[in-house]
Amino acid sequence: MPRGVWAGPPVVVLGLVFLYPLALVVQQSLTPENGGGAFDAYASVFASHGFREALGTTVWLALGATAGCLVLGFTLALVIAFVPFPGAKAVSKFIDVFLSFPSFLITLALLFIYGTVGMANGVWTGLTGVGAADGPFHFLATPWGVLLAEITYFTPFVMRPLLAAFSQLDTAQLEAASSLGAKPARIIRRIILPEALPALAAGGSLVLVMCLNEFGIVLFTGAKDVTTLPMLIYGKAILESDYAAACVVAVVNIAISVGLFGLYRVVSKRAGA
After folding, report:
1. SS3 letters for the chain?
2. Handedness of CA 100, 105, 107, 109 (dihedral sign)
3. Is pLDDT above 80 for 207?
4. In terms of CB atoms within 10 Å, which end of the chain has fewer, N or C?
C-alpha cells in the first residue's frame, strides 16, 4: 500500500484531537460575541492593564524559576553523581518517581509547612504564644511563594537529563585532572560543565515552557495578587464568561510556547542535545 495511506489515520487523529480545537480557539478570538471587527478583541486585550501585568508576571516567574531550577538542579545532580553517600542510588530513583507527582501535590505540601496555619507558624506559636495567623511565614501567597513552589517542583526536570549526562562522563578525565592538582571548582568548570551544557539546555528549555503554562501551582498557593496568563484565561473564561478575551490570551500563550519550543530545538541542536 502507498505510504500516504498509512500516514492518513495518524494525521486525521492529530487534526481532530489537536488542530481542530486549536482552530476553534483562534476562530473564537476573531469573532467577538458582541460583534465588531475581527481584531477588536485583540486590541481590547492588548490595551488592558491586566493583560500586560499578567504577561510580565508570567515571564519573570518563568525566567526566575528556570534560573533557580538550573542552579539548584546542577548542584544537586553534582552531589548525587560525584559525591559518594549512602542512598545515592535511591535518591536518583526517587527523582524518577517525583516526576510523576502532580504540581498541586507539592504545593499542598508547602502549604502544610509554610501556610498560615502550617507547621512553621505552629512552631512559632509554641515558642512565642502568638497566634498562627500572626506568625512570620506568609510568603507562600506572594509571588515569591509561587516562585519557591515552581523551583521545588520543576528542579527534578533539570536533574534527570543532567544525571543521564553525568553517567556517560568518563571518570578517567576527572581522576587525571585531580591527580594533576586541579581544584574541584576548576574540574567542574573545565570538564563537567561543558559536558552538561546540552542537558542543561534541554532541561532548562523544558522547565521554561512548563513554567510559562503552569496553572495548578498558582491556583493552590492562594496567591490572589499573582495573575499569570493561564490564570487570566481561567478568570476571563470561567469567572467573567468573556470567551473571546480568554481565547485571545490563549492564542498569545500558545504563540509564546511554540516560539520557545522552536528556540529550544535550535539551541539543543547546536548544543548537540
Report:
1. CCHHHHHHHHHHHHHHHHHHHHHHHHHHHHCCCCCCCCCHHHHHHHHCHHHHHHHHHHHHHHHHHHHHHHHHHHHHHHHHHHCCCCCHHHHHHHHHHHCCCCHHHHHHHHHHHHCCCCHHHHHHHHHHCCCHHHCCCCHHHCHHHHHHHHHHHHHHHHHHHHHHHHHCCCHHHHHHHHHCCCCHHHHHHHHHHHHHHHHHHHHHHHHHHHHHCCCHHHHHHCCCCCCCHHHHHHHHHHHCCCHHHHHHHHHHHHHHHHHHHHHHHHHHHHHCC
2. negative
3. yes
4. N
Q: How confident is the model over 41-63, as pLDDT tens digits?
A: 888 888 989 899 999 999 999 99
pLDDT score, position 133: 61
Indicate the average pLDDT of the chain. Answer: 81
Question: Alpha-carbon distance 247 to 264, whole Å?
Answer: 25
The C-alpha torsion from 267 through 205 and 47 to 224, rounded to 10°, is: -170
Lowest mean pLDDT of 67-76, 114-123, 255-264, name the range: 114-123
User: How do residues 121-158 score in pLDDT, each as one tens digit?
Assistant: 777 677 776 665 666 677 777 888 889 889 989 999 99
**Per-residue cell: 86:** 549512602
DSSP 224: T
Give the span between the Cα atoms of 116 and 258, in whole angstroms. Answer: 38
pLDDT at residue 44, as a whole number: 86
Give the count of alpha carbons within 13 A of 126, CB side only.
Answer: 7
Q: Could you tell me which residue, 2 or 252, shows the higher pLDDT?
A: 252
